[in-house]
């Protein structure tokens, strides 16, 4: 069933969009990620303009993150103070990101810019995740492997403007917290991703937050940053397609339930290496499209009489 997307100005099969949303929802349930860094390139592949794909994808992240954070509030695993500081940085970062996005759109280079960002980010994240997963599998096979001692202090603890985060049991500078939030805000605006795949490791390894409060706090910040990003895109770039967002959300909600059940049957290391392979495959496809000769060669020019 073909459906016309008024903002994207293309006709796409509605069941294909539901299927893409469902597939990413399955990934979200299996791997614990929002899936925006996979769904947005997939939208490129089916003909959705990159500007519309980036701006619209944030809607699905808001919906999935909201449902997730409610469960974490019930378990009291959300550090509201930490989330608020991250949110301040995230809002500033998203405002900067939308300005960059608008500038690249005015130059007519937004498609190239977004695709290059995805190639670099997916290539880096996928490679690191792949080798980390291989090392985790290797360590799991070693008998009686001694755990490495955990460092209790790092360079973060020497920075000024310290704040106490009771829920996370931390007394650290607000500077790295703001920088992490701002980075995620820029990514949300420029690439249409929630940024959890970057924020969560940063919160654990840089800030030293307990794992039990990391995911809930990350989701709390992502809701507001992606919502604010969607609003800015709707006002400044007019690239949010409500029909596309609705179909993706419906598919994602259904797929997440399936993915949660599938994820319980696989080990964490196996899940991470499967996700890493998928990320690298998408990265390779994007990189190939950048250098391959297009099927239809054309040029635009003014006719001379």
Automatic annotation (TrEMBL):
It is a multi-pass membrane protein. The chain crosses the membrane at residues 12-39, 85-104, 110-131, 174-207, 213-235, 242-259, 271-288. Pfam families: TauE. GO terms for cellular component: plasma membrane. InterPro entries: TM_pro_TauE-like (IPR002781), TSUP/Inactive_protease-like (IPR051598). Keywords: Cell membrane, Membrane, Transmembrane, Transmembrane helix. Its main location: membrane. It is found in: Cell membrane; Membrane. The keyword Cell membrane applies. Belongs to the 4-toluene sulfonate uptake permease (TSUP) (TC 2.A.102) family. This is Probable membrane transporter protein.
């Amino acid at each position: 069933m073909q459906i016309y997307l008024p903002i994207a100005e293309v006709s796409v099969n509605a069941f294909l969009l539901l299927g893409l949303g469902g597939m990413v929802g399955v990934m979200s349930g299996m791997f614990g990620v929002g899936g925006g860094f996979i769904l947005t390139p997939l939208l490129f592949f089916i003909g959705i303009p990159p500007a519309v794909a980036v701006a619209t994808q944030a809607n699905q992240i808001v919906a999935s993150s909201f449902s997730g954070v409610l469960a974490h509030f019930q378990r009291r695993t959300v550090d509201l103070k930490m989330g608020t500081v991250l949110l301040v940085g995230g809002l500033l970062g998203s405002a900067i990101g939308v300005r960059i996005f608008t500038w690249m759109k005015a130059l007519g280079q937004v498609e190239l810019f977004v695709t290059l960002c995805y190639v670099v980010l997916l290539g880096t994240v996928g490679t690191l995740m792949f080798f980390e997963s291989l090392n985790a599998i290797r360590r799991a096979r070693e008998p009686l492997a001694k755990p490495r001692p955990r460092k209790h202090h790092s360079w973060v603890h020497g920075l000024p403007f310290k704040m106490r985060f009771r829920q996370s049991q931390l007394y650290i500078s607000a500077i790295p917290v703001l920088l992490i939030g701002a980075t995620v805000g820029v990514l949300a605006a420029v690439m249409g991703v929630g940024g959890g795949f970057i924020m969560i490791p940063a919160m654990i390894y840089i800030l030293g937050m307990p794992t039990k409060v990391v995911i809930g706090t990350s989701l709390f910040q992502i809701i507001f940053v992606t919502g604010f990003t969607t609003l800015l895109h709707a006002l400044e770039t007019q690239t949010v397609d409500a029909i596309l967002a609705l179909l993706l959300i419906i598919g994602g909600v259904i797929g997440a339930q399936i993915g949660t059940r599938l994820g319980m049957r696989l080990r964490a290391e196996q899940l991470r290496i499967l996700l890493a392979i998928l990320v690298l495959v998408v990265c390779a496809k994007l990189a190939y499209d950048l250098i391959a000769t297009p099927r239809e060669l054309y040029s635009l020019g003014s006719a001379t009489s």
